């Protein structure tokens, strides 16, 4: 017991003030829906919190639509796999919205093993005047009923309820790392370390395995799948990334099993920067198609790369996220930070890309002007409605006043999950257990 | 062997290009001596770190396969490099010579190296995994068969294995023993057993006596408590209480020193020349814990 508390002390020593209440509140995914009206967050405790944008009121035009809590529900519970004597975490790994087809909203949420389809609907009326039961729900004594009446719908306080409509389970032996809804809005893929499975949204008892990289002899396993996504327009095309820094584009029309890629994207290694960590830092943590479907963006440990789908041998653009960490790879390996999986995201027009870093920093790169900026998501440094000040990390030599040195960076404060509104310049950034929503300044 | 007062400086291997390494392919010992000491030290500590990462799997939740694969690949890369410049041979030979045979199980590889080579109490161990890998590189055998062979032929008098094996200790007990010990103590540094294991157990093909199943679980996540054993967690906590914090202490890493000194190639060479025990005192508490664990396991298994 003593040792346990010692360990905890040591671990805490490089966490500065930690303001999170419990680990269950750590946000593990954020996602805007396709209209940008809703923002969903998933956390380590298996909960989903959905925010809705306020309707902009004409009386207060300066006050742009803010996001308020719309619905909260427990999506996944911790489970115990008795066969393997292992716990299955309830942490929500990914949330993906389905396009809206009626008044209700639908989203897919997944933990390590199970995907669930949730329906979020509003109820603002309820029937009153039942014959067989009271308004409270108590059964009426039939002998007291002397006349019949027709129940009437009465208005009530708005209630938002979430119901699980489908549960897609028992299809993954390994941990699910991503889900992606097809542009046909009928199917979706779920991806674990070694396999990609195709599901029909209506059918929960079977899925089709379309990619399987599990070797016959597991001794030969040297590469895993890290992420997969459907093409935004072509319903037969999807891409998946690997831990060795490659991306494969597959066409489902070619064969039932898409083990043979139709395009293979990989940048040859630069021999001058080779080290024992080269492979680890080349592992791709996220892959995202651009909205226009012409480009692919990948995030590895130190860079973000934009690939042209027509050019496989090298990326179109490479952006350094935090190259000052290159000299610290050994320490980052030791404290496991080198395995952190950062996500990346496009803005609505595919002109700006964004990704997170340490010390609650996140970076934006303008692809047209080639300018980049580092911003910080923290309460101390930004008051509500204040403009974010650009931050800078000083690499060596003299540190200017507002700069922060590499050694002062807090590696426990990492921004892994970010999302960008589909049309406007509104971003949501998850910093441990805090959600930050930033908007463009209104002039 | 080295001039007195040579200061071992820690610098990130990431910064050092491989070409800096000095290689003289005359004899293994000569090659080792001419290696840049800083580079070799870093490489060794990286290897140690990786091995510990692989063995210290989370007991409750399945460990991250991607992370395990990346660490295993790193270990393989280091081993290949060390095999090429002959350092590996020295290390295994030194260990084989230094360690006395015993008929109790030997512990994790790292703990083994911390053992007083003069022949203190051995620890329960899962050397099979490690030896597996080296066999793969030296002998090129296939999965199942190989491990079976390894298990059955490991004994104090198996010279061919002991010279090649990193862990000189024999396995006096049957496989089921190791399974018990496995849960947490075992270190897995080779992908060979581990991946195969994961797949086997994942597919429900559980051969309880196969060492593959056992070792794979450690790295690639599918733990199975096959016997109604008490949860090993408390013992495990105690066991690794000495190893864990110091290893994950950034300060320690940055100074390049560990509280529990690692046996690098230079330590081995020193021990060879001195024929005496190396100064590995910090492992004594580990050892007593392991003895207790041994004892508990004996009772449970009823051997």
Automatic annotation (TrEMBL), chain A:
Keywords: Repeat, WD repeat. It comes from the Eukaryota. SMART domains: WD40. SUPFAM superfamilies: WD40 repeat-like (SSF50978). Gene3D superfamilies: YVTN repeat-like/Quinoprotein amine dehydrogenase (2.130.10.10). One of its GO terms (cellular component) is protein phosphatase type 2A complex. GO terms for molecular function: protein phosphatase regulator activity. PP2A consists of a common heterodimeric core enzyme, composed of a 36 kDa catalytic subunit (subunit C) and a 65 kDa constant regulatory subunit (PR65 or subunit A), that associates with a variety of regulatory subunits. Belongs to the phosphatase 2A regulatory subunit B family. This is Serine/threonine-protein phosphatase 2A 55 kDa regulatory subunit B. It comes from Pogonophryne albipinna. The lineage of its organism: Eukaryota, Metazoa, Chordata, Craniata, Vertebrata.
From TrEMBL, chain B:
Pfam families: SERTA. It comes from the Eukaryota. Residues 1-26, 172-215 are annotated as: Disordered. Keywords: Cell cycle, Cell division. Residues 39-86 form the SERTA domain. The keyword DNA repair does not apply. This is Cell division cycle-associated protein 4. It comes from Dissostichus eleginoides.
């Amino acid at each position: 017991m003593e040792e346990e508390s010692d360990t905890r002390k040591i671990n805490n020593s490089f966490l500065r003030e930690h303001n999170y209440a419990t680990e269950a509140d750590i946000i593990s995914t954020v996602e805007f829906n396709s209209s940008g009206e809703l923002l969903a967050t998933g956390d380590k405790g298996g909960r989903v919190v959905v925010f809705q944008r306020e309707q902009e009121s004409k009386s207060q035009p300066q006050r742009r639509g803010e996001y308020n809590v719309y619905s909260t529900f427990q999506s996944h519970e911790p489970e115990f796999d008795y066969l393997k004597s292992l716990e299955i975490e309830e942490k929500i790994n990914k949330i993906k919205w389905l396009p809206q087809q009626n008044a209700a909203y639908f989203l897919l949420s997944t933990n390590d093993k199970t995907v669930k389809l949730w329906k979020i609907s509003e109820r603002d009326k309820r029937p009153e005047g039942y014959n067989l039961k009271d308004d409270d729900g108590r059964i009426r004594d039939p002998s007291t009923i002397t006349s019949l009446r027709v129940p009437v719908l009465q208005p009530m306080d708005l209630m938002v309820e979430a119901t699980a409509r489908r549960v897609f389970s028992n299809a993954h032996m390994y941990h699910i790392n991503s889900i992606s809804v097809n542009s046909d809005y009928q199917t979706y893929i779920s991806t674990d370390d070694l396999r990609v499975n195709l599901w029909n949204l209506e059918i929960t008892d079977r899925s089709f395995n379309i990619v399987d990289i599990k070797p016959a002899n597991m001794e030969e396993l040297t590469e895993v799948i890290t992420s997969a996504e459907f093409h935004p327009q072509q319903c037969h095309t999807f891409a998946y990334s690997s831990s060795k820094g490659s991306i494969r584009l597959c066409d489902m029309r070619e064969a039932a099993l898409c083990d043979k890629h139709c395009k293979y994207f990989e940048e040859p290694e630069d021999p001058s920067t080779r080290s024992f960590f080269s492979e680890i830092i080349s592992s791709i943590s996220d892959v995202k198609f651009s909205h226009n479907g012409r480009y692919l963006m990948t995030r590895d440990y130190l860079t973000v790369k934009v690939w042209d789908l027509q050019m496989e041998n090298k990326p179109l653009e490479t952006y350094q996220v935090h190259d000052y960490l290159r000299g610290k790879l050994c320490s980052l390996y030791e404290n496991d930070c080198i395995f952190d999986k950062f996500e990346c995201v496009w803005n609505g027009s595919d002109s700006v890309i964004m990704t997170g870093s340490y010390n609650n920093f996140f970076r934006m790169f303008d692809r047209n002007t080639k300018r980049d900026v580092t911003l910080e998501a923290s309460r101390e440094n930004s008051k509500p409605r204040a403009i974010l000040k650009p931050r800078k990390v000083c690499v060596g030599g003299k540190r200017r006043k507002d700069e922060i040195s590499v050694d002062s960076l807090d590696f426990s404060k990492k921004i892994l999950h970010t999302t960008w509104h589909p049309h406007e310049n509104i971003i949501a950034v998850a910093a441990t257990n805090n959600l930050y929503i930033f908007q463009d300044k209104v002039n | 062997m080295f001039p007195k007062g040579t200061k071992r400086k820690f610098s990130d291997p990431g910064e050092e290009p491989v070409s800096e390494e000095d290689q003289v392919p005359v004899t293994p010992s000569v090659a080792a001596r001419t290696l840049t000491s800083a580079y070799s030290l870093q490489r060794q500590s990286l290897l140690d770190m990786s091995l510990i990462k692989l063995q210290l799997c989370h007991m409750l939740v399945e460990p991250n396969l991607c992370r395990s694969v990346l660490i295993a690949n790193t270990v393989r890369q280091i081993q290949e490099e060390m095999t090429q410049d002959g350092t590996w041979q020295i290390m295994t030979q030194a260990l084989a010579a230094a360690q006395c045979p015993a008929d109790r199980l030997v512990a994790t590889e790292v703990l083994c190296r911390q053992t007083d080579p003069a022949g203190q109490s051995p620890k329960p161990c899962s050397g099979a995994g490690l030896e597996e890998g080296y066999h793969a590189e030296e002998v090129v055998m296939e999965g199942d068969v190989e491990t079976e062979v390894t298990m059955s032929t490991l004994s104090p008098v198996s010279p061919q294995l002991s010279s090649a094996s990193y862990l000189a200790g024999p396995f006096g007990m049957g496989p089921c023993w190791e399974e018990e010990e496995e849960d947490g103590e075992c270190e897995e540094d080779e992908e060979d057993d581990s991946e195969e294991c994961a797949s086997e157990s994942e597919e429900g093909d559980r051969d309880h006596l196969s060492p593959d199943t056992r070792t794979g679980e450690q790295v690639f996540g599918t733990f199975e408590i096959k016997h109604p054993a008490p949860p090993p967690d408390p013992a495990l906590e105690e066991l690794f209480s000495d190893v864990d914090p110091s290893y994950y202490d950034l300060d320690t890493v940055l100074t390049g020193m560990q509280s529990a000194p690692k046996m690098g190639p230079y330590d081995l060479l020193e021990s060879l020349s001195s024929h005496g025990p190396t100064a590995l005192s910090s492992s004594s508490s580990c050892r007593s814990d392991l003895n207790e664990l041994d004892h508990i396991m004996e009772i449970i298994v009823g051997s």
